[in-house]
Amino acid sequence: MLTQYHIEILLNALGHHFSPRALSAITYANIHQDRLLGLFWHDEFHFDNNAFAKSYAYIEDQRALTISSLQKDDAPSAWAAFGRFLHTAQDFYAHSNYITLWLSRFDDSSQNKAERRDGQTLPAPSEVDAVDPSLLNHPDLCSGKVYYPFELLYFWPPTKNFSLQWLPPDSHAWMNLDSPEQGFKFDYAMQAATKRTVIEFEKTTVGFSEAVCQLFLDK
Ligand SMILES: [Zn+2]
Questions:
Q1: Which runs of E-coded beta strand occur in 89-161?
Q2: In this predicted structure, what is the pLDDT of residue 150?
Q3: What is the pLDDT of residues 114-156, one digit of tens each?
Q4: 192 CA to centre of ligand 1 in angstroms
């Protein structure tokens, strides 16, 4: 997802939980995952290239680091680790076909037909289920493959359309829901990523003592 949408998701999902200082540290670490060195050779940061197992392992490693940092009274390290793995969890909805699979339950032809939404055949984006077990384990679940060098041309506006002519349908360029430019499914990806962020927050903080909670939320 583009930086501004990661920020929007964090604000909507966590803004009322954390102090401004904590939220800004979480946000910085989150969007820093999309730095140039974080984009290359780090499929696990973004659920790219079908790196599902590596991405799930990365989330759990960073969650463990969040908790162990709090045990050492190191809130800044906890916020950074938390922000990093939330980026991965949010990118899942932008880089995999989870949203397409969820929508296909309601309308087999929903693949490219935004107008179906106006025809009220599809539920509203706010109704999306972010963690449907049958979809998380669906045999057709996949994420966009990054085909170099053409994928690089996709990120530069003057060569974007040129690159799309050469990239296959299973590429990141064709599959991503990184911005509203990708069509109506982006709204579902945003809603799902926001719900998932709340779920990850609850999963991480379950069992925290009042003192650890105070340290983490900085309140
Ligand atoms: Zn990313």
A1: none
A2: 82
A3: 555 555 589 999 999 999 999 999 999 999 999 988 888 888 8
A4: 15
**Ligand 1 mean position, distance from CA 119 (Å):** 33
Distance 146 CA to ligand 1 centre (A): 13
**Which two tokens mark 53?**
């197992």
User: Who surrounds ion ligand 1 at CB < 5 A?
Assistant: 34, 46, 91
The whole-angstrom separation of Cα 122 and Cα 61 is 36
Residues 52-109: tens digit of each pLDDT: 999 999 999 999 999 999 999 999 999 999 999 999 999 999 999 999 999 999 975 5
Alpha helices in 131-181 (DSSP H): 133-136, 150-154, 157-166, 172-175
Q: Give the number of other CB atoms < 10 A from CB of residue 216.
A: 23
Centre of ligand 1 to C-alpha 48, Å, is 9
